[in-house]
């Protein structure tokens, strides 16, 4: 079950007040772009504590900005799948638009909530206010956020505090200026060629049922405006119908009009740290090669960013276009779905170091749950099979691994990337 934004913002009342009492609110409203919130009070005393507004990202992360009654700013992050240790602070490097990084600390106040006090540093707040993007680097992992109208959000939050302190909660209303509250995302100019320019999106998928079902990442097919095509190596493309998708877990189910000859087998038992894996996909299709590529590595960790247990961290090299491709164990069964790679350039800008071999795959547990919910029959390997050579694994995978492609507007093609 997803967190509701209101519940997350209310939970961050505890962040702002450091109180163990329950939060109550919002009083009044803050509506700036995707940010929603208002004023909050201590539920026991009824005293005003802070103003806050939050937004939800496609990755499932909830991001909240707060300012308390003493004008102290703070950030908060939450994800329903995190398993954090309360009270164990850890360093975070915040970078805005690739500029000079700021060193702060995250303080878990629950297994799913992280508080980040913003120090009384006018430079940090100034950068946040004008930035279009923000990265948060911590514990070898990188979060990326597209910042929506923060230049209007921060004044709205400050106005919320000032208004409530002056007039009380009875005077709470819309705290953002009217022109801000009414403003929406910029509309593309129909006459602008850039706004309507089409681009080709490509990714990878693999066959999971004898009824022609194919799975891939949701972000691979997100924004597709034309036919979604699937190509097995050496065969004509077939049109794929989008059956269902899960944005939270980044999974999509497609179906061909007829069955494929071969079907992938999904590993029945969880894989272990240190196990060897093979990633297969179509990175930079047409630029590097028209055939799929094969890379090898190991399972580096059984969790992804911020201990997200839906993901594996792998050392097998992946590139744009590998998304949605099969991650195979040494017997050639599906051990996961390739999902993302760490952005080395942004990490280097934030830390001065270039990360190597940090990539992520969706675990088979999440994949099987998705297929079960979609009532799709699939093959499972209950017992471990004999190990195969990498060349044999690749040869077998050729029969069920597809190049996924579609046409999308330039804006749609970049939207997913910008929001993570």
Provide structural commentary.
The protein is α+β, with helices and mostly antiparallel strands and 420 residues long. Helix content is 21%, strand content 37%. It has helices at residues 5-17, 122-130, 150-167, 178-182, 193-196, 218-221, 344-351, 364-373, 390-397, 410-419, and strands at residues 23-32, 35-42, 48-56, 62-68, 73-78, 90-96, 102-108, 113-117, 133-138, 141-146, 198-207, 213-216, 228-232, 238-246, 251-255, 265-267, 276-281, 293-301, 311-314, 326-328, 334-341, 359-363, 379-381, 401-409. The protein has a ten-stranded antiparallel β-sheet. A hairpin with a 5-residue loop joins strand 6 and strand 7 (102-108). The longest helix has 18 residues, at 150-167. It starts with a helix and ends with a helix.
Question: How would you describe this structure in keywords?
Answer:
420 residues, alpha+beta, 10-stranded antiparallel β-sheet, 6-stranded antiparallel beta barrel, 24 strands, disordered N terminus
């Amino acid at each position: 079950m997803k967190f509701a934004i209101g519940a997350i913002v209310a939970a961050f009342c505890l962040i702002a007040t450091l109180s163990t009492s329950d939060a109550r609110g919002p009083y009044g409203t803050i509506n700036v772009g995707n940010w929603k919130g208002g004023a909050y009070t201590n539920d026991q005393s009824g005293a005003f504590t802070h103003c806050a507004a939050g937004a939800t990202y496609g990755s499932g992360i909830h991001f909240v900005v707060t300012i308390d009654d003493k004008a102290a700013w703070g950030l908060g992050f939450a994800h329903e799948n995190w398993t954090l240790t309360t009270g164990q602070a850890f360093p975070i490097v915040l970078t805005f638009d690739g500029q000079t990084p700021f060193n702060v600390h995250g303080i878990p106040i629950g297994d799913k909530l992280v508080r980040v006090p913003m120090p009384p540093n006018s430079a940090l707040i100034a950068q946040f206010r004008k930035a279009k993007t923000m990265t948060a680097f911590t514990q070898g992992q990188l979060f990326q956020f597209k910042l929506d109208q923060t230049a209007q959000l921060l004044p709205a939050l400050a106005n919320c505090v000032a208004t409530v302190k002056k007039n009380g909660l009875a005077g709470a209303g819309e705290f953002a200026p009217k022109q801000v509250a009414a403003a929406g995302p910029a509309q593309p100019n129909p006459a602008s060629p850039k706004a309507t320019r089409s681009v080709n999106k490509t990714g990878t998928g693999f066959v999971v049922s004898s009824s022609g079902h194919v799975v891939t990442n949701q972000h691979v097919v997100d924004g597709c405006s034309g036919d979604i095509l699937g190509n097995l190596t050496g065969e004509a493309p077939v049109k794929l119908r989008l059956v269902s998708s899960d944005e939270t877990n980044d999974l999509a189910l497609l179906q061909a009009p007829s069955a494929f000859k071969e079907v992938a087998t999904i590993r029945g038992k969880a894989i272990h740290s240190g196990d060897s894996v093979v990633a297969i996909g179509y990175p930079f299709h047409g630029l590097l090669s028209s055939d799929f590529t094969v890379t090898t590595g190991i399972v580096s960790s059984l969790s992804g960013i911020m201990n997200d247990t839906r993901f594996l961290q792998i050392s097998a090299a992946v590139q744009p276009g590998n998304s949605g491709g099969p991650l195979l164990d040494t017997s050639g069964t599906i051990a996961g779905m390739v999902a993302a790679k760490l952005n080395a350039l942004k990490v280097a800008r934030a830390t001065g170091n270039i990360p190597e071999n940090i990539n992520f795959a969706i675990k088979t547990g999440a994949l099987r749950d998705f297929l079960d919910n979609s009532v799709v029959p699939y093959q499972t390997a209950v017992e471990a099979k004999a190990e195969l050579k990498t060349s044999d694994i690749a040869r077998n995978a050729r029969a069920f691994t597809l190049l996924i492609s579609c046409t999308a507007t330039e804006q749609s093609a970049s939207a997913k990337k910008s929001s993570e």
